[in-house]
Amino acid sequence: MASVDSIRNSIIDRLLTISNKEYLAALFKLVESSSMGNEKLSLTKEQRIMLQLSEQDIHDGRLISQEQLDKEDIEWLKNL
Question: Where are the domains of the chain?
Answer without folding.
Answer: 1-34, 43-80
